[in-house]
């Protein structure tokens, strides 16, 4: 994971535009983000900016995904998969209920 030190990220990907908000589409470079993190605004922001970029696989930044390793504490069962199964079962039950309620009594 040598690639993911801040200095290496700035050197390799500093000029790329990154998405730093989960609610807005605005992007900025890592160089600009570094200035933000060292500014009064960045140090006191009650909702600080963080990287939310889901487009890394579309350019040279794909290397970051290849260097990433899932931390051991998350390397087990996918809990979201279970949530999806429960939601799917509930959805199927709702459909079954709709079908049985439309039958004449």
Describe what this molecule looks like in 3D.
The protein contains 5 helices and 2 strands; from the N terminus they run αββαααα. With 105 residues, it is mostly helical. The chain has a two-stranded antiparallel sheet. The chain starts with 5 loop residues before the first helix and ends with a helix. The mean pLDDT is 80.
The residue fraction in helices comes out at 40-55%
Number of strands: 2
Oligomer: single chain
- Give the strand line-up of the largest sheet: 1-2
Which class best fits the helix and strand makeup?
Answer: mainly alpha
Order of helices and strands: HEEHHHH
Low-confidence runs of at least 5 consecutive residues:
none
The radius of gyration computed from the alpha-carbon positions, rounded to a whole number of angstroms, is 22 Å
DSSP helical segment count: 5
The termini sit apart by 65 Å
- Rough shape? extended
Which SSEs are present, and which pair or pack?
Elements: H1 6-13, E1 18-19, E2 27-28, H2 30-38, H3 40-44, H4 62-67, H5 79-101
Short descriptors:
mainly alpha, 105 residues, 5 helices, two-stranded antiparallel sheet
In short:
This protein is mainly alpha-helical. It has helices at residues 6-13, 30-38, 40-44, 62-67, 79-101; strands at residues 18-19, 27-28.
């Amino acid at each position: 994971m040598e690639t993911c030190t801040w200095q290496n990220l700035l050197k390799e990907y500093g000029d790329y535009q990154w998405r730093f908000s989960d609610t807005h589409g605005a992007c900025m470079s890592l160089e600009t983000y570094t200035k933000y993190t060292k500014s009064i605004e960045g140090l006191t922001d009650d909702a600080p900016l963080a990287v939310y970029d889901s487009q890394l696989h579309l350019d040279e930044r794909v290397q970051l995904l290849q260097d990433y390793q899932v931390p051991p504490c998350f390397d087990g069962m996918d809990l979201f998969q279970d949530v999806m199964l429960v939601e799917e079962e509930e959805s199927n039950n709702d459909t079954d209920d709709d079908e049985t309620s439309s039958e004449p009594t």
